Amino acid sequence: MSARRPEAVDPRGRYIPEAGSVLVPGASGNVGARYVQSLSARRASLMQEPVLVLNATYEPINVTAVRRAMVLLLKGVAQAEEVHNAEVHSSAHAHKVPSVIRLLAYRHIPQQSRALSRKNILLRDRNTCQFCGKIFPSSELTLDHVMPRSRGGRSSWENLVACCYRCNNDKGDRTPEEAGLKLARKPRPFTLHTSRQLMRLIGHRDERWRKYLFY
Ligand SMILES: [Zn+2]
User: Fold this and answer.
1) Boundaries of CATH 1.10.30.50 in the chain?
2) CATH architecture observed for domain 118-179
3) How do strand 50-54 and strand 94-103 relate by DSSP bridges?
4) For residue 26, how far is its CA from the centre of ligand 1 (angstroms)?
5) Rounded to the nearest whole angstrom, what is the distance from the C-alpha of residue 157 to the centroid of ligand 1?
Protein backbone atom coordinates (compact mmCIF):
# COMPACT_ATOMS: atom_id res chain seq x y z
CA MET A 1 0.00 0.00 0.00
CA SER A 2 1.49 3.33 -0.95
CA ALA A 3 1.86 6.08 1.63
CA ARG A 4 0.17 8.64 -0.57
CA ARG A 5 -2.52 10.63 1.12
CA PRO A 6 -6.13 10.42 0.02
CA GLU A 7 -7.16 13.53 -1.86
CA ALA A 8 -9.73 14.55 0.72
CA VAL A 9 -6.95 15.40 3.16
CA ASP A 10 -4.62 18.35 2.84
CA PRO A 11 -0.86 18.08 3.49
CA ARG A 12 -1.36 18.81 7.18
CA GLY A 13 -3.82 16.00 7.59
CA ARG A 14 -6.89 18.21 7.73
CA TYR A 15 -10.00 17.35 5.81
CA ILE A 16 -10.88 19.52 2.88
CA PRO A 17 -14.65 19.85 2.58
CA GLU A 18 -14.65 20.46 -1.13
CA ALA A 19 -18.31 19.73 -1.69
CA GLY A 20 -19.39 22.91 0.10
CA SER A 21 -20.86 24.61 -2.92
CA VAL A 22 -23.26 21.78 -3.78
CA LEU A 23 -24.56 20.97 -0.34
CA VAL A 24 -25.67 24.25 1.12
CA PRO A 25 -29.45 24.76 1.20
CA GLY A 26 -30.46 27.61 -1.01
CA ALA A 27 -27.19 27.58 -2.91
CA SER A 28 -28.07 25.12 -5.64
CA GLY A 29 -30.08 27.49 -7.79
CA ASN A 30 -33.22 26.80 -9.77
CA VAL A 31 -34.27 23.19 -9.31
CA GLY A 32 -36.61 23.23 -12.32
CA ALA A 33 -33.76 24.23 -14.59
CA ARG A 34 -31.95 21.03 -13.67
CA TYR A 35 -34.19 18.92 -15.87
CA VAL A 36 -33.62 20.85 -19.04
CA GLN A 37 -29.87 20.71 -18.80
CA SER A 38 -28.04 19.03 -21.66
CA LEU A 39 -26.74 15.51 -21.15
CA SER A 40 -23.16 16.64 -20.64
CA ALA A 41 -24.25 19.28 -18.19
CA ARG A 42 -26.23 16.63 -16.35
CA ARG A 43 -23.20 14.45 -16.20
CA ALA A 44 -21.16 17.39 -14.97
CA SER A 45 -23.69 18.08 -12.22
CA LEU A 46 -23.76 14.39 -11.31
CA MET A 47 -20.01 14.59 -10.79
CA GLN A 48 -20.64 17.34 -8.24
CA GLU A 49 -23.10 15.32 -6.15
CA PRO A 50 -22.04 14.85 -2.53
CA VAL A 51 -20.47 11.57 -1.43
CA LEU A 52 -20.09 10.56 2.21
CA VAL A 53 -16.54 9.54 3.12
CA LEU A 54 -16.08 6.97 5.90
CA ASN A 55 -12.91 6.15 7.76
CA ALA A 56 -11.68 2.55 7.60
CA THR A 57 -13.69 2.04 10.81
CA TYR A 58 -16.94 3.21 9.09
CA GLU A 59 -16.92 6.45 11.04
CA PRO A 60 -18.18 9.30 8.82
CA ILE A 61 -15.41 11.84 8.42
CA ASN A 62 -16.08 14.00 5.41
CA VAL A 63 -18.23 14.88 2.45
CA THR A 64 -16.68 15.08 -0.98
CA ALA A 65 -17.94 15.29 -4.58
CA VAL A 66 -18.49 12.31 -6.91
CA ARG A 67 -15.59 13.39 -9.09
CA ARG A 68 -13.12 13.30 -6.17
CA ALA A 69 -14.60 10.09 -4.79
CA MET A 70 -14.10 8.37 -8.16
CA VAL A 71 -10.43 9.34 -8.11
CA LEU A 72 -10.03 7.80 -4.64
CA LEU A 73 -11.74 4.61 -5.85
CA LEU A 74 -9.64 4.34 -9.01
CA LYS A 75 -6.45 4.90 -7.01
CA GLY A 76 -7.43 2.07 -4.70
CA VAL A 77 -7.41 4.34 -1.66
CA ALA A 78 -11.10 3.80 -0.96
CA GLN A 79 -13.87 1.39 -1.83
CA ALA A 80 -17.52 2.06 -2.60
CA GLU A 81 -19.92 1.07 0.18
CA GLU A 82 -23.10 2.44 -1.42
CA VAL A 83 -23.74 3.34 -5.04
CA HIS A 84 -26.38 5.10 -7.14
CA ASN A 85 -28.07 3.38 -10.05
CA ALA A 86 -26.39 5.80 -12.44
CA GLU A 87 -23.14 4.87 -14.14
CA VAL A 88 -20.28 6.85 -15.58
CA HIS A 89 -18.19 5.44 -18.41
CA SER A 90 -14.46 5.65 -18.79
CA SER A 91 -12.69 4.36 -21.92
CA ALA A 92 -12.86 0.71 -20.89
CA HIS A 93 -15.27 0.45 -17.98
CA ALA A 94 -18.62 1.49 -16.62
CA HIS A 95 -18.51 2.60 -12.99
CA LYS A 96 -21.45 2.88 -10.63
CA VAL A 97 -21.64 6.38 -9.20
CA PRO A 98 -20.67 6.19 -5.50
CA SER A 99 -22.88 7.56 -2.73
CA VAL A 100 -20.77 6.39 0.23
CA ILE A 101 -17.10 5.41 0.10
CA ARG A 102 -14.75 4.08 2.77
CA LEU A 103 -11.02 4.69 3.10
CA LEU A 104 -9.09 1.42 3.16
CA ALA A 105 -6.39 2.67 5.53
CA TYR A 106 -7.35 4.20 8.89
CA ARG A 107 -6.78 7.91 9.10
CA HIS A 108 -6.32 9.76 12.36
CA ILE A 109 -8.62 12.78 12.51
CA PRO A 110 -7.49 15.67 14.70
CA GLN A 111 -10.30 17.03 16.86
CA GLN A 112 -10.56 20.38 15.19
CA SER A 113 -9.57 19.78 11.66
CA ARG A 114 -11.41 22.30 9.55
CA ALA A 115 -9.36 24.93 7.78
CA LEU A 116 -10.53 28.50 8.31
CA SER A 117 -11.86 29.55 4.92
CA ARG A 118 -14.73 31.49 3.40
CA LYS A 119 -16.33 28.25 2.25
CA ASN A 120 -16.16 26.72 5.73
CA ILE A 121 -17.54 29.82 7.43
CA LEU A 122 -20.51 29.82 5.04
CA LEU A 123 -20.93 26.09 5.67
CA ARG A 124 -20.85 26.57 9.44
CA ASP A 125 -23.39 29.38 9.22
CA ARG A 126 -25.45 27.39 6.67
CA ASN A 127 -25.44 30.24 4.20
CA THR A 128 -27.49 32.29 6.66
CA CYS A 129 -26.71 35.96 7.20
CA GLN A 130 -25.96 36.11 10.91
CA PHE A 131 -27.58 39.52 11.27
CA CYS A 132 -30.85 39.36 9.32
CA GLY A 133 -31.24 35.57 9.49
CA LYS A 134 -32.02 35.11 5.78
CA ILE A 135 -30.53 32.34 3.64
CA PHE A 136 -28.57 33.42 0.56
CA PRO A 137 -26.64 31.73 -2.25
CA SER A 138 -22.89 31.81 -1.55
CA SER A 139 -22.38 34.46 -4.23
CA GLU A 140 -24.62 36.87 -2.29
CA LEU A 141 -22.82 36.49 1.00
CA THR A 142 -19.66 38.03 2.32
CA LEU A 143 -17.71 37.53 5.53
CA ASP A 144 -18.12 40.07 8.29
CA HIS A 145 -15.57 40.72 11.01
CA VAL A 146 -17.81 41.03 14.09
CA MET A 147 -15.20 43.23 15.75
CA PRO A 148 -14.03 45.26 12.74
CA ARG A 149 -10.51 44.64 11.51
CA SER A 150 -9.80 48.37 11.75
CA ARG A 151 -10.35 48.01 15.50
CA GLY A 152 -8.18 45.01 16.05
CA GLY A 153 -10.71 42.30 15.18
CA ARG A 154 -8.95 39.13 14.07
CA SER A 155 -9.75 36.79 11.20
CA SER A 156 -10.76 33.82 13.32
CA TRP A 157 -13.63 31.37 13.67
CA GLU A 158 -14.88 33.42 16.62
CA ASN A 159 -14.81 36.76 14.80
CA LEU A 160 -15.97 35.91 11.26
CA VAL A 161 -19.59 35.34 10.27
CA ALA A 162 -21.59 34.93 7.08
CA CYS A 163 -23.25 38.22 6.24
CA CYS A 164 -25.36 39.54 3.35
CA TYR A 165 -24.09 42.61 1.53
CA ARG A 166 -26.92 44.73 2.84
CA CYS A 167 -26.23 43.97 6.51
CA ASN A 168 -22.50 44.26 5.90
CA ASN A 169 -23.09 47.72 4.47
CA ASP A 170 -25.40 48.73 7.32
CA LYS A 171 -22.88 47.60 9.90
CA GLY A 172 -19.87 49.31 8.33
CA ASP A 173 -16.96 49.81 10.71
CA ARG A 174 -19.03 49.30 13.83
CA THR A 175 -19.61 46.53 16.32
CA PRO A 176 -23.04 44.84 16.17
CA GLU A 177 -24.09 46.71 19.33
CA GLU A 178 -23.12 50.08 17.87
CA ALA A 179 -24.98 49.28 14.64
CA GLY A 180 -28.07 48.02 16.46
CA LEU A 181 -27.64 44.53 15.03
CA LYS A 182 -27.80 41.25 16.87
CA LEU A 183 -25.86 38.10 16.02
CA ALA A 184 -28.07 35.06 15.31
CA ARG A 185 -25.65 32.97 17.35
CA LYS A 186 -22.20 33.19 18.81
CA PRO A 187 -19.65 32.16 16.18
CA ARG A 188 -17.63 29.06 17.09
CA PRO A 189 -15.02 26.88 15.46
CA PHE A 190 -16.18 24.00 13.31
CA THR A 191 -16.25 20.95 15.55
CA LEU A 192 -16.75 17.32 14.72
CA HIS A 193 -20.22 17.71 16.18
CA THR A 194 -21.04 20.51 13.72
CA SER A 195 -19.69 18.39 10.89
CA ARG A 196 -21.92 15.48 11.84
CA GLN A 197 -24.97 17.72 11.94
CA LEU A 198 -24.12 19.03 8.51
CA MET A 199 -23.58 15.54 7.16
CA ARG A 200 -27.03 14.59 8.42
CA LEU A 201 -28.52 17.67 6.83
CA ILE A 202 -26.96 16.75 3.50
CA GLY A 203 -27.78 13.10 4.01
CA HIS A 204 -31.51 13.82 3.98
CA ARG A 205 -31.18 13.79 0.21
CA ASP A 206 -29.73 10.31 0.14
CA GLU A 207 -31.21 7.33 2.00
CA ARG A 208 -28.00 5.41 1.56
CA TRP A 209 -26.20 7.65 4.05
CA ARG A 210 -28.54 6.98 6.95
CA LYS A 211 -27.10 3.90 8.52
CA TYR A 212 -23.67 5.50 8.69
CA LEU A 213 -24.92 8.69 10.32
CA PHE A 214 -26.93 7.03 13.13
CA TYR A 215 -30.32 8.56 12.37
ZN1 LIG B 1 -28.34 40.22 6.30
Assistant:
1) 118-179
2) Orthogonal Bundle (1.10)
3) parallel
4) 15
5) 19
